[in-house]
Every structure is written in C-alpha cells, then in structure tokens.
Design goal:
It is a single chain. This protein has 128 residues and is of the alpha/beta class. The protein contains six helices and seven strands, in the order αβαβαββαβαβαβ. The chain has helices at residues 5-15, 23-31, 44-49, 63-70, 87-97, 109-115; strands at residues 19-21, 37-40, 50-52, 56-57, 78-81, 103-106, 120-122. α5 (87-97) links the parallel β5 and β6. α1 (5-15) packs across α5. It is globular. The model has no long low-confidence stretch (mean pLDDT 95).
Length: 128
C-alpha cells in the first residue's frame, strides 16, 4: 500500500519516541511464556480475517477509549501490532501519552509475521 506523505511524516515522528521490536523478538517472548498483552490494533475487518496466535483485538479506532478498562495496569508490558507497523507506532505513542510505561510497537506488523511463517489463528468477530 502506498501511504501519503503526511501520514508517513506523522509515523516517522512518532517512531522517534516509541520502542519497537521485530517479529522474532515477539515470537521468542511468546514461546518463553513471558507475560505481556499482545494487542492487534487493526480494523475490525482485518482482524476478522486472521490474527497472530495469542493476540487479542482492541481496534485502533477505540483503543484510547477502551484501553484503561481492558488493560488497567499502566506498567504492564504491551506489544501492539497492525498491518505493517505504522498504525501500531501511532497507537504506542498514544498509550505512552496516557501513562502506559512498557508499550512496544511490532515493526512490520502482521505482514512481517505472515512472511516469517509464524503461527496465525483464523479471525473471529471482534468484540470492539
């Protein structure tokens, strides 16, 4: 997908202030049984197709509204992903502004997860 320059500038600016990790790191954390919230912030229709195994859905459109109810511990580790790592970067910045201290955006998102051949679960109707 070709992104507009303004969007890319916004994402680039956000990436200066957030932490990112690769898909291999996330998979290793999952396999080690490390506790963290693995959050898919894609649109409802994207989540309805498939998701990374172990992820739960809090759509980008409702994230800021619902996150404090769904993830009340602002010091808990959180890994966010989207389709390619741009929306999750913006989401990570938003959560940091809300006081979340251990938020990471998964670079490459679901695209990189699929390309790596990592476990995928069929989608389901999201609750948000």
């Amino acid at each position: 997908m070709k992104h507009n320059p303004g969007f890319l500038a916004l994402v680039g600016d956000a990436k200066k202030r957030i932490a990112e990790c690769g898909v291999a790191e996330v998979r290793a954390r999952l396999e080690a049984g490390e506790p963290f919230a693995f959050i898919d912030v894609r649109e409802d229709a994207e989540f309805a197709v498939d998701r990374a195994r172990g992820a739960r859905h809090i759509g980008r459109g409702v994230l800021e509204r619902d996150v404090e109810t769904l993830l009340p511990d602002k010091d808990a580790p959180i890994v966010l992903y989207c389709g390619g790592g741009f929306r999750s970067a913006l989401a990570a910045e938003s959560l940091q502004k809300m006081g979340y201290t251990q938020v990471v955006s998964m670079d490459g998102g679901m695209r990189a997860w699929r390309e790596a051949g990592y476990p995928i679960e069929p989608g389901e109707r999201p609750r948000s």
